[in-house]
Design a protein that fits this description.
Number of strands: 0
CATH topology: Methane Monooxygenase Hydroxylase, Chain G, domain 1
Number of domains: 1
CATH class: Mainly Alpha
Largest sheet: none
Number of helices: 3
Strand content: under 5%
Order of helices and strands: HHH
Helix content: over 70%
Oligomer: single chain
Amino acid sequence: MANIKSAKKRINVTAKKALRNKMIKSRTKTAIKKVLVAAGEGNKEVAGTALVKAIAVIDKAASKGVYHKNNASRKKSRLTKLVNKVGA
């Protein structure tokens, strides 16, 4: 256990940030899963609306630094391609 005051504070700050990042990642994964489920069922309308929400959540996560911008872009691109295939 840390004895120095600044080290104790860093432990608290790190724990808070880790919790925040975990919440954001969980929210993102849930949004992505909704798109995948709708696309798997072949429901293009539901998949499209879920995609719009998922893209917003992914962008928000990237802006907060939870995901790198290229990682977020890749996730959005793959989901969009999947939804576009559903209608075809």
